[in-house]
Amino acid sequence: MKLTARSVSLVPIVSTVAAAALGASLIMAGNANAATTLGAAAQQSGRYFGTAVAAGRMGDSTYMGILNREFDMVTAENEMKMDATEPSQGRFTYGNADRIVNHARSRGMRVRGHALAWHSQQPGWMQNMSGSALRNAMLNHVTQVATYYRGKIYAWDVVNEAFADGSSGARRDSNLQRTGNDWIEAAFRAARAADPGAKLCYNDYNTDDWSHAKTQAVYRMVQDFKARGVPIDCVGLQSHFNAQSPVPSNYQTTLQNFANLGVDVQITELDIEGSGSAQASNYDRVTRACLAVSRCTGITVWGIRDSDSWRAYGTPLLFDNNGNKKPAYTSVLNALNAGGPGPTTTTTTTTTTTTSNGPGPGDCTASVSLNQWNEGFVATIKVTAGSSALKGWRVTTTLSNGTVTNSWSANRSGTSGTVNWTNVDYNANVPAGQSTEFGFQGTGSGSGLNPTCSAS
Ligand code: G3I
C-alpha cells in the first residue's frame, strides 16, 4: 500500500477495526499499489466506497460476505427514513436502523444517515399535518433522530429531494414546503445543534447535469446557505442513471462547481442501468469524475447485487444476482486504483474541557467539544450547573484566530476576540448537576476558546 500524506492524516478517524480490515484487503496485485476491494481502493485517495444496506437482507450470507469484504461506508436503504423511525408521533423506533448501524460500526465501516426530512415516506400521522404543527414535528424529528445517532454518523442527508423536476427551478410542492420556504435551513440548524460532528448534506436526484434548472436551483440554494452561514457541509448527488437519464457529459463540471461553493460533494445513490462494457464504461466515467474533484469525498452505490436494487430489472449494480463481480465492478476498482487527489477537507476532531468558577452553589462549568477542519470549525459548548440550579447563565469564549459565522441556542455578543454568550429562554433553567448545550460555527481556528461560565 502506498500511504499518501492524506491517507495518513485520516488515521485518527478510522477505527482500529477499519485499519485492520484495510490492511487485510490490500493484497498486492499486478500493480504494486493496487487494492483488491472497493473500500480499500477508495481509501488510497482518502475517499470511501459505500453501499445501501437493507436490514431485511442481513441474514443472507452472500450479501453479507460482499458487504463485509468490499465496502467501508453504509447507508440504510429505508430504515432511517421518517416512517421507519417515528411511526407514531413521539414514538421513535430504531431497531432495524440500529442493526445496520451496529453492524457497520463493528466492522469499522462508517455510516451515512438517510434521511432526516423528506416529503416522501413520511409516517401517516405526519402526512396529514400542516403549518406550525408540522414544522415543529419535523424539527422535533430531526432533533430526536440526529441526537439518538449523535457521534455515529459521518454525514446526514438532512433534507432529501426538495426541488421540483423540470424547468421551473422551483421548490417541490409538499406539506413541508408549505410550512414556509425556510423549512430546509431550519432543518439544517436543528441537525447541527443535535449532532455537531456530522457532516450535513442536501441530497437530490436529477442534479447531475450542470445545465439543468434543478441543478442550478440547488446550486443557488447552497450558495445562499454558505453566504448566510446556514450550516451545510455537503451536497449529495444521488446519480440514478439509465437511458432516459444518462451520465451527463458535464458531470465532473457539476461536481466541481458544487465543491467550489466550499462544500464536500458525495455521490450518494449511484446505479446505472445496463450491462457489459457499456455499463462498465459509464461506471468508469462516474468514478473518474469523482476522483478528479478533490472535494468529492466518496461514492455510494444503491445496493449490492442487481437483485437487491429498487430497479432490479435494469441490472444497475456492480454484482450480478449470484454475487459475482460484473465488468462494471472491475472498471470501478481499476479507476479507484488509478487514484486521484484526496479530499482537501480532512476533518480532525479534538475535544478539550475547561472548568471555571467551581462548581459550587450558584456556579457553573463550561466545556467545549471542537470539530475543526481546514477552513473552519463547529464548537459545542456544554454548560453544567453546580450544586444549585441555574436560572440563567453567561459564557465567555476567546476567539484569537477565528470568526463566528453562525450560532444556535444562545444569544451572542461579538464574533471574534472575546465573545459573550447568554442563555435563550428555553435553556435558562438548568437543574443542579445537569447540563445544556449551545453551539456555533466559524471560519478560521476554534482552538483556545477557553470557555468560562457564570450564573446570571
Ligand atoms: O417491506 C415492505 C414489504 O413488507 C411489503 O410487502 C412491500 C409491499 O409493497 O413493501 C415493502 O416495502 C417497500 C420497501 O421499499 C422495501 O422494499 C416499500 O413498499 C417501497 O416503497 C420501498 O421503496 C424504497 C423507496 O426508496 C421508497 O421511496 C426503495 O426500497 C428504496 O431503494 C428507495 O430509495 C430512494 C432513496 O431513499 C431516495 N432516492 C431515490 C431512491 C430510489 O427510489
Automatic annotation (TrEMBL):
Keyword Signal: yes
Protein EC: 3.2.1.8
Signal peptide stretch: 1-34
A molecular-function term among this protein's GO annotations: hydrolase activity
Ubl conjugation among keywords: no
Region span, Disordered: 337-361
CBM2 domain boundaries: 357-456
Residues of the GH10 domain: 32-335
Active site: E269 (nucleophile)
Record keywords: Carbohydrate metabolism, Glycosidase, Hydrolase, Polysaccharide degradation, Signal, Xylan degradation
Bias (Low complexity): 343-358
Catalytic activity: Endohydrolysis of (1->4)-beta-D-xylosidic linkages in xylans
Family: Belongs to the glycosyl hydrolase 10 (cellulase F) family.
Protein name: Beta-xylanase
Organism of provenance: Lentzea atacamensis
